[in-house]
Specification:
By secondary structure, the protein is an alpha/beta fold. About 35% of the residues lie in helices and about 20% in strands. It has 4 domains: about 100 residues, Nucleic acid-binding proteins (OB fold (Dihydrolipoamide Acetyltransferase, E2P)); about 80 residues, no CATH class; about 190 residues, P-loop containing nucleotide triphosphate hydrolases (Rossmann fold, 3-Layer(aba) Sandwich); about 160 residues, P-loop containing nucleotide triphosphate hydrolases (Rossmann fold, 3-Layer(aba) Sandwich). It contains 20 helices and 24 strands. An 8-stranded mixed β-sheet has the order 13-12-14-11-15-17-10-18, sandwiched between helices. Strands 19-24-23-20-22-21 form a 6-stranded parallel β-sheet, sandwiched between helices. Helix 6 crosses helix 19 and helix 8 packs parallel to helix 9. The longest helix has about 30 residues. The chain is globular. It binds adenosine-5'-diphosphate and magnesium ion. The site of magnesium ion has 4 residues, from helix 9.
C-alpha cells in the first residue's frame, strides 16, 4: 500500500465509506494518516474490578457474564451486561447498540474503558469503549486512546483501526526528508516515529513531540509554497512601464488633501510608489483596520498612474462599496482632470472621454468592458472575491507573463507574523493607526435586564444629539449569502423596533433587496431621513456614514470577533463620540471573553492577538473568511515555530543539495495532490 493510494485500498472500505471520509477531507491514505487526533483519553489506568471507584476513568479486563437488550423507562433501547474478573463483578450499560449482542457473548474476554458512574445506585461503566482482548495489543482500551474529528458513520473507533492498518502497511513509504543535522538541531522526532506516536502515543509528552514535528512540516510546506509563488511572480514583467514622479504626487495630490496623512499612510504610499516604478509588477497587500484610510493610499497610486497616462481599475465586492469609492475618488480628484467611471450591474456612470480610473464590482471582469491601458489594479476587501475572480481581472488587463501592478486591500487585521505567512507571496503594507482626531468608540455589553434602559438612552441620544443609529439584527445563518430566514429576522426586528421607537423614522436594509433599493435606503439614511437603520449583517462591508454614531448589535454572542469589530467600525467615523451596544442574552465562556475583549480595545490588531489566545489552536481572527484551510497539527499561536520554519524554508530554497530528500518528498506530495 502506498500513501498516494485511494482510501478504497483499505480492507472493507468501499464507495460508501469513501464518500463519508471525503467529508473529513480524507481521500488518500496520506490524508488518512494525517488525520490528527483532536484529543486523547487516558485509558491507561488498568484496575481490578474490586478497586473501581466512582468517578475514576479506568480500564478493566474480564469475561462477559451476560449481555441482554433492555428498555429504559423512556422507551430507549439499552444493553445491559456484566463483566467479571478474579476480584469481582461490574455492571455495564450501553445505549442503542443492539449489535453488541452479536459480537459479545457470555465468556468473551473483553477489555473495557470508561468512567465509573453511579447507575441507579450501583457502580457501572456507562457506554465504555470495548475491545476483545485475544489480541495482544490494545487499540481502543487500556492506553492513551486517540479521539478524532468524526463524521456521520465514521467513528473514532473505526478510524483508529484503519489508521493502524494504514500505518503498518505504508511504513516503507514514509521516508524522512529532513537532513539529520536539522533534525538534531531542532530536536525533532523522526517522521516515521511522529506518525506512529501521534496516533498511538505511550504518553502525552510523546504525543506532543510528534504533533510538534508534524506542525513543523505544515509550517515549512506553507512557507515553501508562498516563497515559490513569490519567485514565480518575480519572473513577470510589467505591462506598462511607469516613471513615478514623486514630487508631483506630493504637491498635487497629497498636499491638497483635506487632512494630513497618518505616518503609516505615508509609509504605505511610499512603498506603493516605489513599486510602481519597477519593472516587476507590484504584488502588494494593504492591510488596515476599518477606517484607517486605505482608499486614499490606493488613490495616491492611481494618481501616479494617471500622470503616466495609464488607467487604474478598482474592483470592490459590492455595488454600495463601488459607488462609495466612486464618490470618494471624484472628491479626491476634483481639482485634477482625472476622469472616473463607475461600472456595476446597475449601469454606468462616467465623465465624458476616456476614463482614467474605472471603479466597479466584479462586473469589471465582464467581457463587454473594455480597458485601454490599465497599469494598476486595486482590489478592495479581497477576501470577498474568489481567487479566480481576482486572477481574471489581472489577466484581462495583462498579457501572458506581463501584468499590471496589483494592490489588494483588506480590513481584516491579521497579526503581522501570520499575515507574513498567509500572504508570504505578497509584499505587505500595514496601516496600524487611525487618523488623528478619531474618538475611540465606547463599547458596552448590554444584558437582557438593561435592554429597556438602553432603548431609553438611544431615544434620548436621537432627540438631543441628533444621533443616527444602526441596528444589526440577529444573525441566523453564517454563510456569506443571506437566506430568507435572515431577511425574515431582519423584518421582524424592524417591526418590533417600529413599535418601540414609534416616534422615530426607521429604515430596513437586507440582502434580498434590489441594488437600487439598497442604494436609495443608504442614501436616505445619509441624508438623515431615518434615525435608525435596521440591517442584516450585510453592512459589515465598508459603508461610510459619518453621522451614524450608535451601533447596536443584537445577539452579539453569535458573531465572531472579526465580524463584531468590522460592524463596530461602521460608526466612529465623524466628529462626535460613538457607541457600540452589544446586546447579549446569554454569553458564556469564550463568547463572553470575545465581547469583553471588544469592550476593552478599539484596535483590530490587538483584537486579532487576543482572538489568537481565546480560540487557541485552529481558527484565528478572520482567517476562515479568507478561505485558508486550517492546520491539522500546527497552531497559529506558535509564532516561534512559525519563525524558525520560515528561516529553514529560505535555507531550503538556497541550498537544494542539502535538502535533496525534501525536494524528492515535495515532488511526491505534488503527485499525490494531482
Ligand atoms: P477604510 O480603510 O476603512 O477603507 P476609508 O478609506 O474609507 O477607510 O477612510 C475612512 C474615512 O477616513 C474616509 O472618510 C476618509 O476620507 C477619511 N480619512 C482617510 N485618511 C484620513 C486622515 N489621514 N485623516 C482624516 N481622515 C482620513
Ligand atoms: Mg474601505
Amino acid at each position: 500500500m502506498q500513501l498516494i493510494d485511494n482510501v478504497k485500498k483499505l480492507p472493507f472500505v468501499g464507495s460508501s465509506y469513501e464518500t463519508r471520509l471525503q467529508k473529513l477531507d480524507i481521500y488518500t491514505i496520506d490524508d488518512l494518516i494525517n488525520h490528527i487526533p483532536s484529543r486523547y483519553v487516558d485509558f491507561s489506568n488498568v484496575v481490578d474490578i474490586k478497586d473501581t471507584k466512582l468517578g475514576d476513568v479506568v480500564t478493566v479486563k474480564g469475561e462477559i457474564v451476560f449481555l441482554k437488550n433492555q428498555y429504559t423507562h423512556s422507551g430507549k433501547r439499552m444493553q445491559l451486561a456484566s463483566v467479571k474478573d478474579k476480584t469481582g463483578e461490574l455492571k455495564i450499560f450501553w445505549f442503542n447498540q443492539p449489535f453488541l449482542l452479536k459480537t459479545l457473548y457470555p465468556g468473551t474476554k473483553v477489555s473495557l474503558s470508561g468512567k465509573v458512574s453511579d447507575f441507579g445506585g450501583q457502580l457501572a461503566l456507562v457506554s465504555p469503549e470495548y475491545e476483545k482482548f485475544e489480541k495482544k495489543e490494545s487499540l481502543h482500551t487500556g492506553a492513551l486512546i486517540p479521539v478524532y474529528p468524526e463524521t456521520k458513520g465514521v467513528t473514532s473507533k473505526w478510524l483508529r483501526s484503519k489508521i493502524k492498518y494504514a500505518l503498518e502497511n505504508t511504513k516503507g513509504d514514509i521516508d524522512e526528508f529532513l537532513p539529520r543535522s536539522l533534525i538534531e538541531k531542532e530536536s525533532l522526532v523522526h517522521i516515521k516515529r511522529a506518525y506512529t506516536d501521534i496516533h498511538f502515543p505511550k504518553d502525552i509528552d510523546t504525543a506532543e513531540k510528534s504533533r510538534k514535528r508534524l506542525a513543523f512540516n505544515e509550517f515549512l510546506f506553507l512557507h515553501l509554497s508562498t516563497i515559490y509563488k513569490k519567485i514565480e511572480w518575480k519572473k513577470r514583467h510589467v505591462i506598462y512601464k511607469m516613471n513615478v514622479d514623486r514630487r508631483n504626487v506630493e504637491n498635487n495630490f497629497i498636499k491638497k488633501l483635506p487632512f494630513t496623512l497618518t505616518d503609516s499612510q505615508k509609509r504605505s504610499i511610499e512603498e506603493i510608489l516605489k513599486d510602481l516604478g519597477k519593472n516587476v509588477p507590484m504584488n502588494r497587500l494593504l492591510e488596515g483596520d476599518v477606517g484607517s484610510g486605505k482608499t486614499v493610499v490606493a488613490a495616491a497610486g492611481a494618481f501616479a498612474t494617471f500622470l503616466n497616462g495609464y488607467q487604474t481599475a478598482i474592483m470592490a465586492p459590492t455595488q454600495i462599496l463601488a459607488e462609495q469609492h466612486y464618490k470618494t475618488l471624484k472628491m479626491l480628484f476634483k481639482e485634477h482632470k482625472v476622469r472616473v467611471k463607475l461600472i456595476t450591474a446597475a449601469g454606468v456612470k462616467a465623465d465624458e472621454g476616456v476614463p482614467d480610473i474605472i471603479v466597479g464590482t466584479h462586473s469589471l471582469i465582464h467581457k463587454t468592458v473594455n480597458f485601454r491601458n490599465v497599469a494598476y489594479v486595486v482590489i478592495d476587501e479581497q477576501h470577498r472575491f474568489g481567487v479566480e475572480q481576482r486572477a481574471h481581472l489581472t489577466k484581462k488587463v495583462g498579457e501572458k507573463l506581463k501584468n499590471p501592478h496589483s494592490l489588494t486591500m483588506t480590513a481584516t487585521p491579521i497579526p503581522r507574523t501570520i499575515a507574513l505567512t498567509l500572504y508570504g507571496d505578497l509584499d505587505l503594507s500595514i496601516l496600524d493607526e487611525l487618523p488623528k482626531g478619531r474618538k475611540p468608540i465606547k463599547t458596552i455589553i448590554v444584558s437582557k435586564k438593561k435592554r429597556e434602559d438602553a432603548y431609553g438612552w438611544i431615544k434620548k441620544m436621537i432627540k438631543e444629539e441628533c444621533a443616527q443609529v444602526f441596528v444589526i439584527c440577529p444573525l441566523i445563518d453564517e454563510s456569506e449569502r443571506e437566506g430568507m430566514e435572515q431577511v425574515k429576522a431582519a423584518t421582524e426586528e424592524y417591526e418590533r423596533l417600529k413599535n418601540i421607537f414609534d416616534k422615530f423614522d426607521l429604515g430596513l436594509l437586507h440582502g434580498k433587496q434590489k441594488a437600487e433599493e439598497k442604494n436609495k435606503i443608504i442614501s436616505d439614511f445619509r441624508k438623515k431621513k431615518y434615525d435608525i437603520l435596521v440591517s442584516t449583517p450585510v453592512i459589515e462591508v465598508g459603508i461610510d456614514i459619518p453621522n451614524a454614531t450608535i451601533m447596536v448589535i443584537e445577539t452579539a454572542e453569535r458573531f465572531g470577533l472579526a465580524q463584531l469589530h468590522q460592524l463596530r467600525g461602521r460608526v466612529g467615523r465623524g466628529e462626535s463620540k460613538s457607541y457600540c451596544l452589544l446586546f447579549s442574552e446569554r454569553s458564556t465562556g469564550k463568547s463572553r471573553k470575545r465581547l469583553e475583549a471588544l469592550s476593552k480595545t478599539n484596535s483590530g490588531f490587538k483584537l486579532a492577538e487576543l482572538d489568537l489566545q481565546i480560540r487557541g489552536p485552529g481558527e484565528v481572527f478572520g482567517i476562515k473568511q479568507h478561505g485558508f484551510t486550517n492546520f491539522k497539527a500546527a497552531n497559529w499561536s506558535d509564532t516561534k515555530l512559525l519563525k524558525t520554519t520560515k528561516d529553514i524554508a529560505l535555507d531550503v530554497i538556497e541550498k537544494p543539495k542539502k535538502f535533496k530528500s525534501l525536494y524528492k518528498y515535495l515532488e511526491k506530495k505534488r503527485q499525490i495532490a494531482n
